[in-house]
Design a protein that fits this description.
This protein is mainly beta. It folds into five domains: about 90 residues, no CATH class; about 80 residues; about 80 residues, no CATH class; about 60 residues; about 130 residues, Sandwich (Jelly Rolls). Helices cover about 10% and strands about 40% of the residues. It has five helices and 33 strands. The strands form seven sheets. Strands 1, 2, 3, 4, 5, 6, 7, 15, 16, 21, 22, 23, 24 and 25 form a 14-stranded mixed β-sheet that branches. Strands 26, 28, 29, 30 and 32 form a five-stranded antiparallel β-sheet that branches. Strands 17, 18, 19 and 20 form a four-stranded mixed β-sheet that branches. The longest helix is centred in the middle third of the chain and has 14 residues. The protein is elongated. The two termini are about 35 Å apart. About 15% of the residues have low confidence.
C-alpha cells in the first residue's frame, strides 16, 4: 500500500489526510514480540509532500500481512543525503511513555490493565484489556509511565502475568497467546536455502538444577532435570537455576518440579544454539504467518523438531511482503534466537536480462499475492541510446509477457550507468513506469539525484492487477542537469 501522511493532531484516520506518500522509495515496518514496533521510510527530497514530513506528524501504513493499518508518529528525520532522507516513526502506542500513572494495586491481570487507565494522571486515549486469568497481585509503588508499567520495568504487568502484547492503534491487548500454530513447517535444508549457519554446541543446556531460596530452601530429591536429547552429547551440561521469583510462597517439592519441567519444555533445552541467515523459499500453497505464531523447525541432524515462535517481522509496506522473519525459541534467559529466515528481494544484483528471465520462477516461489503467472517470453528490448542528454528521455527497458489469468506482476532489475553534471547542481534522473503503453506516474516520477560518477539503480515495481492476455512493461529515464550513459 501507499502510506498516508496525517497531521499530528489526527485521531480518526478516515480521510486521505495531508496526502499519500506515493514517492516513498522504501517503507519497512519492524515489530518484535513484546518489543520494538517502528517504521522506517526513505523519501526523496523532490517527492510529493516531502516538505510536509515533519516531526510528530503521523504515517498511516499496513504493518504486516493481512493486518489493519496502523499509525506511526514521526520522531526523527535525517539530513538529506544523495537527494533523499530517512524518516523514522514509532507506533502510536509509544505515546504511553508520556502518560503517567499514579501508584495503585490490583489482584488480577484484568484489574491491573484496567487500573492503568483508571489511575492515569493525564489524558489517556488508550484502552487496555487481557484474556489472562490470574489472581497474582500487582503493585505499582511509585508514579511511572503506563508503557513502563506494562512492560518496561521490574515488576511490570508483563513480568508478573506473562503473555504477549498486541498494539492495535489505541487499543492494547495483553494476550495469553497472541499467535497460533498454523501448520507452518521450516525444514532445515529443504525450504531454507543460501544459508549461513553458526552452531554452538558448547552452549547447549542439557538439564537444570532448580532451587528455591526464599524463606526456606527447596530443591529436588533427584537434584536435576535433564532433557531427552542429553544422551546425544558427550557429557552433561547442567545449568543451576534460581526459581524463587516464580513463587509467591514457599513451594512444595512437587510444585518446584512441575515449574522446572515447564521451564525445560518452554525453553526447548537440549537443542543446539543455531543462527541461520537464509533466503527463505516458501511452499507453493502460502501459509500466512503473523508475529508470535508457532512454527515447526525440523532439524535433521538430530532427528528432532523444534516448536518455535516468530519473534520478529520486517514488513515491506510498498511491496506488501515480508523482508525478514526471525524465528526463535520462546525463552526466559538462556536461549538466543534459533533461526532468521531472510526473504530479502531477489532483485538485487541482477542485470536486466536476468530480471526478465527469472521473473516467472521467482514470483512463483517467493512472492505472495502473485498467482498463476506464465509467460510467452519475447525478450527484453533495450531501446535507449548510448547516452541521454539534458532535457531528453528514452526507454531503457522494455519487454512483453503473457498472463494465463488475471494477476499482479512484479518487475525487478539493476541498471548500471554513469552521470556527468552540466553545472554545479546534481543530475536529476526521472524514472517513469509504463504498462501497456500507459505511463503510470507521468506527473509524479521517481526522482533520483546523482553527482558525477558510476551508479547502480535497483528497480522493483509491482503492478495493479492485470487482465489475462498480452501485456508490455517499460521503464523510461528522463534527465535534467546533465548526461546519463
Amino acid at each position: 500500500m501507499i502510506p498516508i501522511l496525517y497531521d499530528k493532531t489526527e485521531s480518526s484516520f478516515t480521510s486521505n489526510g495531508i496526502g499519500r506518500l506515493s514517492d516513498a522509495l522504501s517503507c519497512i515496518v519492524t515489530e518484535e514480540r513484546n518489543g520494538q514496533y517502528e517504521l522506517k521510510m526513505v523519501y526523496p527530497i523532490g517527492g510529493v509532500h516531502y516538505a510536509e514530513l515533519t516531526h510528530s506528524r503521523v504515517i498511516f501504513a499496513q504493518p504486516a500481512e493481512r493486518k489493519a493499518n496502523q499509525a506511526f508518529r514521526i520522531n526523527k528525520i535525517t539530513k538529506p543525503s544523495n537527494g533523499k532522507v530517512t524518516v523514522l516513526a514509532q507506533h502510536i502506542s509509544y505515546q504511553l511513555t508520556s502518560v503517567p500513572v499514579s501508584p495503585f494495586s490490583a489482584d488480577s491481570a484484568a484489574d491491573a490493565l484496567a487500573g492503568l487507565g483508571d489511575n492515569a494522571a493525564s489524558l489517556c486515549p488508550f484502552t487496555m484489556d487481557t484474556d489472562i486469568v490470574s489472581d497474582s497481585a500487582f503493585v505499582l509503588e511509585e508514579p511511572t509511565s503506563i508503557r513502563s508499567a506494562i512492560g518496561g520495568m521490574q515488576g511490570s504487568i508483563l513480568e508478573i502475568y506473562g503473555g504477549e502484547l498486541e498494539w492495535d492503534m489505541y487499543n492494547v491487548h495483553l494476550l495469553s497467546a497472541r499467535g497460533q500454530n498454523r501448520g507452518k513447517i521450516i525444514n532445515y535444508g529443504k525450504n531454507i536455502t543460501s544459508l549461513q549457519q553458526e552452531e554452538s554446541i558448547d552452549k547447549v543446556i542439557t538439564g537444570i538444577y532448580p532451587f528455591y531460596k526464599g524463606d526456606e530452601y527447596v530443591e529436588l530429591t533427584e537434584k536435576v532435570i535433564t532433557v531427552q536429547t542429553a544422551e546425544v552429547f558427550p557429557y552433561q551440561r547442567i545449568q543451576s537455576l534460581d526459581m524463587t521469583k516464580y513463587f509467591a510462597d514457599v513451594p512444595t517439592e512437587a510444585e518446584l518440579r512441575a515449574r522446572a519441567q515447564e521451564y525445560v519444555t518452554k525453553n526447548t533445552l537440549g537443542i543446539p544454539r543455531l543462527t541461520i541467515k537464509a533466503s527463505f523459499v516458501d511452499e507453493e500453497n502460502h501459509v500466512p504467518v503473523n508475529l508470535c505464531d508457532t512454527v515447526t523447525v525440523y532439524y535433521a541432524p538430530l532427528g528432532i523438531s523444534i516448536q518455535a515462535k516468530v519473534v520478529k517481522l520486517e514488513y515491506n509496506v510498498l511491496l506488501e511482503r515480508y523482508e525478514t522473519m526471525t524465528i526463535g525459541a520462546v525463552q526466559d534467559s538462556i536461549l538466543d534466537a534459533v533461526i532468521t529466515a531472510d526473504k530479502k528481494s531477489k532483485s538485487n544484483d541482477r542485470d536486466i536480462t536476468q530480471a526478465a528471465v527469472r521473473t516467472k520462477e521467482e514470483i512463483a516461489k517467493v512472492e505472495k499475492d502473485i498467482e498463476a503467472i506464465t509467460y510467452d517470453y519475447l525478450g527484453p528490448q533495450i531501446q535507449s541510446a548510448s547516452s541521454i542528454g539534458d532535457g531528453q528521455d528514452a526507454v531503457v527497458l522494455a519487454f512483453y509477457f503473457h498472463l494465463e489469468s488475471a494477476a499482479r506482476v512484479r518487475f525487478g532489475s539493476t541498471i548500471n550507468f554513469e552521470t556527468v553534471k552540466d553545472g554545479t547542481d546534481l543530475v536529476h534522473l526521472h524514472v517513469i513506469y509504463n504498462v501497456d503503453n500507459t505511463p503510470l506516474n507521468p506527473n509524479n516520477p521517481l526522482i533520483q539525484y546523482y553527482d558525477d560518477g558510476h551508479h547502480i539503480l535497483t528497480l522493483d515495481f509491482l503492478t495493479s492487477e492485470l487482465a489475462a492476455g498480452n501485456h508490455s512493461f517499460g521503464v523510461a529515464f528522463g534527465v535534467t542537469g546533465g548526461t546519463v550513459s
